[in-house]
Design brief:
Shape: elongated
Mean pLDDT: 70
Region (Disordered): 175-203
GO cellular component, one term: nucleus
Domain C3H1-type: 35-62, 64-91, 92-119, 120-147, 149-171
Function: Component of the cleavage factor I (CF I) involved in pre-mRNA 3'-end processing.
Order of helices and strands: HHHHHHHH
Subcellular location: Nucleus
């Protein structure tokens, strides 16, 4: 017959206590998984793995599509485990963007491990300017990139494709983009373009 001290030890032994909801948390939510393998479970990617949290390989979704390292994981605070939509690994090329640099244009931390991205590089290229003409001129909120027209592309085929440094003009109308005043860029350009052509014809 166990003594009073033995009962107390048994109740306070965490390894002997299991709750009914633990399996659900591990298998459904992906929290507290015990496998330490960095190898992705191929069966899980196919949707055919039945081992759940007991699988010796890592269960993760859209692994190759995870573009940024999880900022919560970097601080040891991420609770999503393998189900997190961000990377749980140190990869300097896929670090999150530095909030201070993006907000103020500078960062005082000399050892900052977050990405310092030039704001100019995040501005999208103006599809209308690339096509030949943008009515907004220097006031356009998109980037106007000057390129020499690729003669090979004009002839019918450029072997360099998207890597070509010369311009590959597109003749179809750009897709709708929101303008400064809330109007779509394509309808805004078409409306003013048609009026300009009409005035030139009447003059």
């Amino acid at each position: 017959m166990p003594g009073p001290g033995q009962d107390f030890f048994h109740l306070n032994n965490s390894k002997s206590c299991t709750f009914d909801f633990e399996d659900y948390i591990k298998t459904e939510l992906g929290l507290g998984a015990t496998n330490e393998s960095d190898t992705i479970c191929q069966e899980f990617l196919k949707g055919t793995c039945t081992k759940g949290a007991k699988c010796e390989f890592k269960h993760t979704t859209n692994y190759r599509e995870k573009a940024v390292v999880c900022k919560h994981w970097l601080r040891g605070l991420c609770k999503k485990g393998d189900q997190c939509e961000f990377l749980h690994e140190f990869n300097m090329r896929k670090m999150p963007e530095c909030w201070f640099y993006s907000r103020y244009g500078e960062c005082s931390n000399e050892d900052c491990m977050y990405l310092h991205i030039d704001p100019e590089s995040k501005i999208k290229e103006c599809a209308w300017y690339a096509r030949g003409f943008c009515k907004h001129g220097p006031h356009c909120r998109h980037k106007h990139v000057r390129k020499v027209v690729c003669q090979l592309y004009l002839s019918g085929f450029c072997p360099k494709g998207l890597e070509c440094t010369n311009g590959h003009p597109k003749y179809e109308l750009p897709t709708a983009q929101r303008d400064h005043d809330g109007q779509d860029d394509d309808s805004h350009h078409r409306h003013h373009g048609e009026n300009d052509e009409a005035r030139a014809y009447l003059d």
